[in-house]
Amino acid sequence: MSARKSGVGYRIGRQFRKLYLKTRDVIRNAYPQFGYQASDVLIASFPKSGRNWVRFLLANSIVVSADRDVEIHFLNSSDWISTTVPKTPPVEDGYPRIVADHGEYQGQDTKVIYIIRHPADVMESYYIYLRDRWNEPVGEFSAFIRDDEWGIPAWKRHVESWESEVDVLITFSGLKQDSGARLREMYTLFERSISEKTVDEAVKRSSFENMARVEQEYGIPRKHGANNDFTFMRKGNITEGEECFNHADYEYLWDAARDKMKNYGFNIPVNI
Prior knowledge:
Blueprint: H1 8-30, E1 41-45, H2 51-65, E2 98-101, E3 111-116, H3 119-132, H4 141-144, H5 152-162, E4 168-171, H6 172-186, H7 196-205, H8 208-218, H9 247-263
Parallel strand pairs: 1-2, 1-3, 3-4
Helix pairs in contact: 2-7, 5-9, 6-7
């Protein structure tokens, strides 16, 4: 188990967050304007799986299609693809309400886009994000990946909770290989088509290089308690965790999540 923050204030804060999440789900189910509807599209993913990339692709495709003079960046992307409650994009021409959520499946009756990434790359990126963005005392990496709340057990639960609900599966490697094709797949859940010109321009605007540029130019959302100098666009590579994993870590990963990894074509780069 990794080291955690301690003290009464921290424990109270965690309990308030859990209460907030439960209250939010109750409100969503009770009130349609806040809750989920069958026509909504929910983008589900474990943290650090490629959600920002998908949000930029969709937001840029809407902007381009509507010929809006808007540059999508980290400070305005939520105006187009929400991360809180389902919200219709500013352009309603055939677009549903869309929301991106990191939570596990809670019975939402929606259309679902699920983003999945090799768990070793997820763990590596998530560890650095929690440590450097939120200043969490995550301890040693080997302990982190074994942690029930943050590590491989949490990743596996997340995948298992969603996999029977998925309408469109998006892999991080698939985004790297052909993000335009992935964008077209997502559009099958909308009541409108997408032109090749829009696909090409949305892909260009959502490239790693351009997202890094707009992060540098506009910044990222400033949040209390966070390191607001953190860089979101760090690498975006597919390395299967080579920066942080050791042999014993890979053995643990394979033992803990072998069935799910095989289902999605994920291997480990060592012999066991």
